[in-house]
Amino acid sequence: MAATTRITVTLPTEQVAELKKLTDNVSAYVAEAVARQLRLQLLAEDLRQYQEEHGAFTEEEKARAHEEIFGSDEATRSAEAA
């Protein structure tokens, strides 16, 4: 198990109420949310650095990446129609 550190976090009352509806383990839920945000920030930095070195992504590259991540528009339409 990873080492942990206890901290105090202040959240709006409404968010805490919603969290408690979703999970019995608020700490684990928040830890996963923080991990996800950190991964997104690291990815954004990697993408920024790549573009700084190689130039901006083309529309074709962005479309291909979108298809890899989300599937093709045709597949999405077929799934929605079913």
Automatic annotation (TrEMBL):
Residues 54-82 are annotated as: Disordered. This is Type II toxin-antitoxin system CcdA family antitoxin. It comes from Kitasatospora setae (strain ATCC 33774 / DSM 43861 / JCM 3304 / KCC A-0304 / NBRC 14216 / KM-6054).
